[in-house]
Amino acid sequence: MGTTLFIVAVIVGLLLWKRPKDDGKPHNDYFRSLESVYQSNGLSEPRLIIDGQRLDQNIDSLVQKIGSDRYRIVAKSLPSLPLLRHVMARANTRKLMVFHRPFLSVIVREIPDADILLGKPMPIAAVKRFYKNLTPEQIHSANRQIQWLVDGLEHLEEYRALAQSLNVTLRINLEIDIGLHRGGFKQGGSDYPEALRYIHSHTEYLALSGLMGYEPHIAKMPLASAERMNKAKSKATAQYQWFKDYIKLNYSDTYRTNLTFNGAGSPTCQLYQSDDTINDISAGSSLLMPTDFDLLSIRDQKPALFIATPVIKALGALELPFLEPICSLLARYNPNWQRSYFIYGGYWKATPCSPQGLSNNGLYGRSSNQELLTGSGSSQLKINDVVFLRPSQSEAVLLEFGEILVVRNNEIAEQWPHLAQSCIENGIQ
Ligand SMILES: Cc1ncc(COP(=O)(O)O)c(C=O)c1O
């Protein structure tokens, strides 16, 4: 009896000791003013908001660190023509990295002076489709704009055959593996020398335009510290240098042709401030800072992208079907389950950020139609109030909403449509 009482006392003690604290807090001034922009414009549905001033600060701070001449904008992470045009103008760069054939077709048509590097190897059918409805003049001009990314000999042969059938020269950038192991040519293997030989023996159809080595693993390593990141970066850049040196040594004329040595991405771009191994630095997401990019390596960039959606039902303590009798106990134990808020829409790749202390409820489940968020009374939410969420990534989330609202000085300054996933919706074949 004594032992049982002791065990019960220990469990109760532990539960009380571990009792969650109230995480709720109402909107701060920043979100309060975003809320009033949303409400004063009569908005009532889930909308994406870009904070235009923060976006500009993020662009300026990035460009200051890496330089306009090296900066290449990752279009997939900012998939909206007005957004891309804005970043190009502010950052003073014409360079884009593109990953999706329908986006490529639109960008070539709408931004004919963009300098485009593909970010992944396009299947040959997609490349054929890209060229299908272009006139010879358009093909010629697109080929001046585009560097196609090739990761291996099979793709290289396919691209050569297509170039031959079109009677054009395609500019080819080779994807190299500098530690991410997402494909591409490997250091020391026979494929890389063979690919270079192949290109140089088919110069009427293929021209080497550079290399691309992507290395986000450096900034995403577990227990990342500045020291560990720099060590991993030195290893990656040494590998990159090997690929460059091979060209310099064996194809010195080509090496002198202003090749594009592309690398980095949002997580690592700032590590190249005083490193010229690469002359072309990609970044996109860190201009909007979705939560996947809350990393030590880019901690000075500010979140600039939010989902805003109204509360449609503000109810009492969490009630779980079949478990009603114990729910009030659970809510008494966990203050963050004292209120149930149903929001308009939901189930996005995003986490609630304001008011503080709201969370999805794993026991109740998710909903794209009206999602439950639980919180405490301290968030002071009522129906029609606005909840803000931070997307975890921009590339998918930007495509899920209507026009993006660009807020500057507490007003909707602009509305930017996003790119459509398909060419027909973008008004091209
Ligand atoms: C080849 C390549 N470069 C750069 C990036 C970086 O994009 P972001 O800056 O949006 O993370 C990516 C992202 O997937 C990539 O695949």
Stretches where pLDDT is under 50 for at least 5 consecutive residues are none
Largest sheet: 9 strands, mixed
- Helix proportion of residues, in percent? 25-40%
Number of strands: 17
Q: In CATH terms, what is the architecture of the largest domain? A: Alpha-Beta Barrel
Distance between the termini: 80 Å
Overall mean pLDDT score?
95
Unique bound compounds: pyridoxal-5'-phosphate
Summed up:
By secondary structure, this protein is α/β, with parallel strands linked by helices. 35% of the residues lie in helices and 21% in strands. The chain folds into two domains: 21-48 and 303-423, Lyase, Ornithine Decarboxylase, Chain A, domain 1 (Beta Barrel), CATH 2.40.37; 114-283, Alanine racemase (TIM Barrel), CATH 3.20.20.10.
Q: What would you say this structure looks like, in words?
A:
This protein folds into 2 domains: 21-48 and 303-423, Lyase, Ornithine Decarboxylase, Chain A, domain 1; 114-283, TIM Barrel, CATH 3.20.20.10. 35% of the residues lie in helices and 21% in strands. It is built from 13 helices and 17 strands. The strands form 2 sheets. Strands 1, 10, 11, 12, 13, 14, 15, 16 and 17 form a 9-stranded mixed sheet that branches. It starts with a helix and ends in a 13-residue tail after the last strand. The model has no long low-confidence stretch (mean pLDDT 95). The structure holds pyridoxal-5'-phosphate.
